[in-house]
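Re: the request from the purification team.
They wanted to know what the chain is likely to look like in 3D before they choose a buffer screen. I agreed to run a prediction and write the result into the notebook, where they can find it.
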Amino acid sequence: MRESYAITVSLGSGKKIKFDNLSFGKPYDFDNEYLNMNIGTNDENDIVVSTKDTLDWIKKIRYRFTLEMRNYSKVIAPDSGRWFLRYMSLIDFWRNSREFTSNIGDIKIPLFMFLNNDGSVGNAVGVIGHNIETQFKIIEPESNRALNVHTGNIILDIVRGNETYPIKSSVYSEKVFHYTSYAGESKPWLLVQRDFADQQRQKYTIKVQYLEKALEPMWCSWVDWDSKDINTEMLLSNIKSGVELGINNFIIDDGWYGNGLDSDYSIDMDIGDWEPDSQKIPDMNLLVARAHDIGARLIIWCAPHAVALKSKAYQENKNYLIADANGVPYLNDPQYYSYCFQSPEGREIMAEICLKLMDKWGFDGAKYDLFNWVPDIECQNPNHNHDTYSMIQGLEKTFARIEEKTKAKNPDYIVELKQNYGTLFNMRYGNLMRAGDAPFDLETNYQRTLHIQSYTPFALNDYQSFTVNDTKEDVACTIIKMFAAGVPAYGVNFSKLSEEMKKVIKYYNSFYKENLETFKNFRIPLNPANSSMLVEGAEKNFVFLHPSNNIVDIVGKDVVVFNGSYRDTIIINNTVPNYNVIVKDCFGDKVYRNTVINQLEKFNVPIGGSITIEH
């Protein structure tokens, strides 16, 4: 079967123009009475559509991909990276994911990847374009009374724009992405999605911000505390301990202003005015000053769009909230309202809130959160105007305006975003993209952080914690797994940790900061299962092993191999004989040193420790 795609362009006038049986990689030039469409003349699979009637416009574009059914092991569905693990089972995917959308609350990368039985990508299709509202639909195999796979086809729709959020342009351009593996090729999904992101970066000239201090280890007050327990004493105690353990970036999370998101639904939210709760933090300026004296940077949690009914902001700015045609604001599920991202006045209010946090209290950065709770509801508020047809693009304009105002005051302001509203496009307005909430679930955190690694190396792990049930080896293996995916982050009460645990954390944070020039680079999977990850440095490489992979192939350069495999032996296959090895435990203390002649050798390496190969 010839794999192909079709395009249907829907116009504002109601006309639909279809182009069927298009071959991937083949150029086309269509010219009819309604529009021109050029495919691949300037760049392979690049599509440019323009209407003939200057009064008409493009409402939406449907891409229908026809692929051959094969034996696959898993699917990586279009996703922000927070929920893709739910849909990896093919049978569940065919049955339970017939239709889903990309909207402001969860901006999905428009890419389907089907994995071979060895875990590598067998086939992938997608659309490289700006972040806009998008629908995804499975056409075949059908799943009604039974799963109908006898046609031998996989047919998928990706629809850009919709009735509520039309493209509304007379000229539109994006690109079809297609990848098929060949015999002997075994490419992990992370690298295929990175190829997709690289083409986005090239097509739209996207540059991601690098800020060295933003990539240092992070601590957050969220995981081990209820938001009502946030107070000056608790914060300063953990900041002091964290600095001693090699952490300099500290987030004051949700609840510093009053009732946090972890409050019971019977408790009214008071979010929106962005003033410290005087019972928790009597003097925010003093807290910031004392943190700076200790050697810490303070990053403040903020959801600038969120407005509670009891806030002063609700009465002052009600006209700029997402509302129905009568001006009645929509209540989000967490029981607050949201400023409208399509409104320039609404965006300016949000940008001023963010600037206030910097100017009034001198914070070193901000964590912008809760955009994933914005409902996928059309704003019809008659009290303000819209200057964009897409709520998603309104969010991007919001981030751009916030950055413009805050970075004008402090170019080194640290900005953390979350992957629900991330992707490469919004990464331009932050220094870190954090994996979705995954405390006490290291594997989910790892996979979510890897998803971010497809488009930026500045991926922040969700904040990990430890309990009395964890050993020093568990702590080390947790940190090793965080290193393998991105920036290490902690949400732990340091006072509950043993001295052994603290020693492990201090050693690994010190190693990370000493090698930050290498850790700023992309992670590279060494196998389709992502159980062995590489970070390439100028003089030395780092390899991270996860359960239960304990085999490493060494090619040329010196390398440090970190043993997160939970096995006490590592097998080294070195292309160069006669090399030195240094083995360390999870504290960074040397266990032994040896000179090795054989290219293939098994070494005893403590769990959570490392082995250095020197040529």
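For the purification team: The first helix runs from residue 90 to 96.
Please add any questions underneath this entry.
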